[in-house]
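Q: Structure tokens for this one, please.
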Amino acid sequence: MATSPSISTPTTSDPPTPPSLFPTLGASPPHASFISQNFTAQLSISATQNNHERHVVSSFSDLSATLDFPSSNLTFFLVKGSPYLTCNVSKPTALSISTALSVTSLSSNAERTKFTLKLDNSQIFLVYSSSPISLTISDPSLITSDAFTGVIRVAMLPSSGSQDIEAILDQFSSSYPISGEAVLTGPTTLEYRWVKEGNEDLLMLAHPLHQQLLSVQDSHAAVLDYFKYTSIDGDLIGVVGNSWVLKTQPIPISWHSITGVKDLVQALPEINAALSSDVQLLISTPLSITGSYEYGKLLAKAARLALIAEEAGSNDIAVITKFLKDGIEPWLSGTFSGNGFLYEGKWGGLVTKNGAADKGADYGFGVYNDHYYHIGYFLYAISVAAKFDVDWGMKFKAQAYALAGDFMNLNRQADSSYTRLRNFDLYNLLSWAGGVTEFADGRNQESSSESVNAYYSAALMGLAYRDTNLTNAASLLAALEIQAIQKWWHVHQGDNIYEDVFASKNKITGIVWSNKRDSGLWFASAESKEIRVGIQVMPISPITEVLFSNASYVKELVEWTAAALSKEGVTDAWRGFTYALEGIYNKAEVLQKIKNLGGFADGNSLTNLLWWIHSRG
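A: Here is the predicted structure, written as tokens:
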């Protein structure tokens, strides 16, 4: 366990190392299969006499954590987006600043409240203090102080830093955030509200999606385009202001296709013929699967058939609804013999029976992997069943909300049964699928489209139960997730998010990690482009149209994937997702490709793909 917080600087070392604020980006030649941030802790601050003390997280909020070293009298306010590391020293304490390199120079202003520290890798750090302090180079890798009480702030000067950038860091060094909350104020608005100390406004950093969504007028903020740090997410730009208002465009939360099925004379007979066949197969096949993910996808597949039946005017709704209710009830009542959901108090969430007994079961659901993927499918099915049978929906409303609460809980109270927004990162504005297992590259998400499905399904549940608050919150999270996916999963060469060596070889990422972008998947190589596309498209539903609204990008993605579709071993189940995307701009030709498919992915069906194609353009 670390003895003290660190500020890290760029490193050229190859092995992955613990994360830091200002990394070096590197791509893997010659195929650019991944890019990553590598980290080395360059500066560590501690009390001279207690530099091996364990830390305590004394408080946390949506955007921050407070780290205490009680017997050292040190408190660190770790706030996402701050360009400074901030340390409060509560009693007179001698400090040590150690470095992994060598200090080549240390100079101060006349008041001894600002020091410029240069390392032998040419990095420059600025050290600010709220009152005079004496800092001395004790040996090449150690700076020590006399007894000090007050606030220390440290910032790295960007390698391209000018006097203007240093002047900005000087100007805003005296005001610092100690915590921050993210407030969902409607279906299109998220506000950041920081608690701060000091008279100046706060200087914070905005990543590219922040920059896209920030309402400068509503935030009373100033954007400093020239003040920037590089990161794997793109340039981080300085924003001056004590609160931010982020606004996104509203997205349609619809049971049915957004613009309706086209060419009804041709479309309806084809859809209804496939529907009749798919429904017969559905109700005649015993439910033998027990995995929460696979079971949820089967239920969601049936729910799609029910909604398509309604849109196409079929009389199959009743039989599908009965299938849904019969399949869902054992999970909600706790009578399903092969598995089930249980509440687990240590981490404040649900686990499956199988996952509790075996951490590898249900894709790690018992250690909190992929929760919103699995539960999202169940919520979709529950919402549709409740739509068509209101009395049934009310009977199981408490259980339905208990499921949704696992990843949709907005409660901040310490006694809440669930953690707040388990998967959604309110600073990065995207979700992380990894649970309580630590990885060298940080948190991760593979199937971005299944994350959208989870929030979309929660919004539909709000519609089914006439819960405007749930629909508004879930639709905002879905909208933010979609824009994050379009920013960091959908790769656009020349947009300054990723280097050309990576962007020229990849049109879509496989896994997005906190500190890495990988073209491979957990279960497939980077060469399996059809799987990489499929895992970022499934499941196909009305919200897919919003996620893939950029038709020119979709065409580039399909063309990039095309050669992979003819490779030996590629299945029709995965081809179907690329064909679905092609249908966005090439409806007439792709329709026959859909009809020729010999198999469909779990959760998908011929009916669903025909509905999708016939509701394009």
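A few notes: Confidence is low (pLDDT under 50) at residues 1-31. The radius of gyration is 26 Å.
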